[in-house]
Write a structure and sequence with these properties.
Strand content: under 5%
Largest sheet: none
Distance between the termini: 28 Å
Number of domains: 1
Number of helices: 4
Shape: flat
Structural class: mainly alpha
Helix content: over 70%
Order of helices and strands: HHHH
Length: about 90
């Protein structure tokens, strides 16, 4: 599951981060600043909120059989996306 998540995450964020790096190399600083800022806030927000409000973690559902079904379902979806996205990028 972790390998699949890395493959899917890279294929989704690679073009976004790549465009920001190209913009920086061309001298555009503000657009890249806001792009990286938005990306970092989106990635850090859930962890920051749970760190500031640890009682929210107790309100979450406990793991069990339902979580295994969710993991398998999302694993299948991730594999489907990891197969679909690279082919779509090559075909245009």
């Amino acid at each position: 599951m972790a390998l699949t998540l890395v493959i899917v995450s890279f294929s989704c964020t690679g073009p976004f981060i790549g465009n920001l790096v190209v913009e920086i190399s061309k001298g555009g600083k503000m657009g890249a600043l806001f792009g990286f800022l938005g990306f970092s806030i989106g990635m850090a927000l859930p962890f920051s909120l749970f760190a500031m409000f640890p009682s929210w973690l107790n309100k979450l559902s406990q793991s069990g059989g339902w979580l295994n079904a969710v993991k398998v379902t999302f694993g299948i979806v991730e594999i489907a996306f990891s197969v679909k996205i690279p082919f779509k990028c090559r075909l245009g």
